[in-house]
Write a structure and sequence with these properties.
The protein is α/β, with parallel strands linked by helices. About 40% of the residues lie in helices and about 20% in strands. Strands 17-18-16-19-20-15-21 form a 7-stranded parallel β-sheet, sandwiched between helices. A 6-stranded mixed β-sheet has the order 1-6-9-10-11-12, with helices on both faces. The longest helix has 15 residues, at about 5-20. The model has no long low-confidence stretch (mean pLDDT about 85).
């Protein structure tokens, strides 16, 4: 009976069955070990080698050609970044390889040596990639002194992308998180986690997720807002039993399209910290994309407001949105202007972008802002709104409809002359406001200024998710004593030059 209610039957087995239903091909631990070569190695090299050949061709002289065997082997070696600079640095370098690929020289007709790009993942055609799942993935430490066995590992093209730790419902979820963090330590198996994009701990009824290096207190709960997405999968995949929280979150995070999308657009490296989006950031970005791909009667993109409570991660969400727009709409040559109303906020936003793979140009003066706008080379410009003061005399005006103005703290100084000047410079731009406290007055209404309400995340939701600390107000009664004798003495001294009627009038006025 005890075995019937073990984590194997309660959590791990249903998870693997669901992942297989989602299209992951199961590989036994023994098959994986053959692919790896040793328990220290974590790449499924045979699968990766085959996929690199399949996904990559280069064109020369109008003919598609394969990469040499030597370059294929070099590509496998190159993505296995050493841990000499630490886990997160290695993870960031690997992420760059996954996103951008690598360039290799090939000998082509007439003895020419030219460089061609090679990719590890086909981000655009998901069906060209291979998805695998295995269990009991034994990995040994570099010194052979320690061993860890993650319950479930997911692979894309032979590269580990996710690790799932399954626990019995009686086990507190925090224990699983601590185990996952222990395995990432230098003396255990960081060579696995340098590749991993999403980590999950589940005990069937409770689930938390993070990414490599996520501290325990920041492991979050995913709350699916696309009910139709989940129900469509549940009806097709879950049969003969009641769907659990684990089932729903596996679909939300690890269905093929989601795993690719979350990795591509919603993983960031911020000052040597690897971060993955919270669910409200993901859905806010998705709703913005839906909005900006809709056009108003004037032929301009629809604008709107993101209303997320303070402390919910709006700055990082702006980075994610900018990254999404620049990558997915690159054929339209989009440009992004990030506007704030304080120097400190502008600096913070610029720094947040600098710590990611997005490189913004920060306007230092009004003239510099004008130059950056005219130049048109910077994909992202950050500025304080008062720098638009200088734009009026310059006469600069950009009619491009693929300019996106992201306004932080949009409930503040975006109603006066400066905001008007900003809209004169970009009359056809798409404006997205970000606020924690929108104004609702008739003369200053954030929604009227920017457009519809795109997405909300309230204080109540933030507190429930433990993303923010609740504000607690306590009323107190303070005892007070009035020294009437001294007050009367002071009054007599102050008013000694007034007549009696004037004293009475002054006393009545409460002065």
């Amino acid at each position: 009976m005890k075995k019937l209610y073990s984590e194997e039957n309660i959590s791990k087995k249903p998870a693997i069955e669901l992942l297989e239903s989602l299209g992951y091909v199961y590989l036994s631990p023994e098959d994986c070990l053959v692919q790896r070569g040793s328990s220290y190695q974590v790449l499924l090299k045979g699968i990766l080698r085959s996929q690199l050949r399949k996904l990559n061709r280069f064109e020369f002289g109008g003919v598609l050609q394969e990469f040499s065997a030597a370059n294929i082997e070099r590509a496998i070696e190159d993505i296995d970044i050493p841990l000499t600079e630490g886990l997160i640095r290695a993870s960031e370098s690997i992420y760059d390889c996954l996103m951008l690929g690598r360039s290799y020289q090939e000998l082509v007709g007439g003895g020419k040596v030219l460089s061609f790009d090679l990719k590890y993942i086909d981000w655009d055609s998901i069906g060209n990639n291979l998805f695998h799942v295995t269990q009991e993935y034994v990995v040994t430490s570099s010194d052979g002194e320690h061993m860890a066995t993650p319950d479930i590992v997911l692979f894309i093209n032979g590269i580990p992308f996710a690790v799932i730790e399954c626990k019995n419902p009686e086990v507190e979820i925090g224990q699983g998180i601590e185990q996952m963090l222990r395995n990432q330590q230098e003396k255990y198996i960081p060579q696995l986690f340098k590749f991993v994009q999403i980590t999950m701990v589940t005990n069937k009824n409770e689930v938390r997720y993070g990414t490599t290096g996520t501290p325990k207190k920041y492991w979050g709960e995913w709350k699916e807002e696309d009910v139709d997405f989940i129900n469509e999968h549940l009806e097709r995949l879950i049969q003969g039993r009641v769907a659990t929280k684990q089932d729903k979150d596996i679909i939300s995070l690890f269905s093929k399209t989601r795993l690719i999308e979350l990795t591509k657009h919603f993983v960031l490296f911020d000052a040597n910290i690897k971060k993955i989006c919270r669910y409200q950031q993901y859905y806010a970005v998705k709703r913005v994309i839906e909005t900006i791909n809709t056009y108003n009667p004037q032929g301009n993109r629809e604008s709107g407001v993101i209303w997320h409570t303070q402390g919910s991660g709006k700055s990082l969400m702006m980075v994610m949105l900018a990254k999404y727009i620049l990558m997915e709409m690159s054929y339209q040559n989009p440009r992004i202007i990030l506007v704030s109303d304080r120097k400190e906020l502008d600096k913070q936003i610029a720094t947040t972008f600098t710590h990611t793979r997005c490189k913004p140009a920060r306007a230092t003066t009004g003239k510099n802002l004008v130059d950056l706008i005219r130049d048109g080379k910077a994909d992202i410009i950050t500025t304080v709104i008062n720098k638009f003061n200088k734009t009026e005399s310059s006469g600069v005006k950009i009619f491009d409809k693929d300019i996106f103005v992201l306004v932080d703290e949009s409930h503040r100084s975006n109603y006066g002359e400066l905001a008007t000047k900003m809209r004169v410079v970009f009359p056809n731009a798409c404006y997205i406001g970000f606020t924690g406290t929108p104004l609702m007055k008739k003369e200053r209404n954030t929604l009227n200024k920017f457009g519809k309400l795109i997405h909300t995340y309230t204080i109540k939701e933030g507190v429930a998710d433990k993303a923010i600390v609740p504000l607690i107000y306590e009323g107190r009664f303070v005892e007070q004593t009035v020294d009437e004798k001294n007050i009367d003495l002071w009054f007599e001294q102050t008013t000694k030059r007034l007549n009696e009627k004037q004293k009475i009038d002054l006393n009545k006025s409460g002065a």
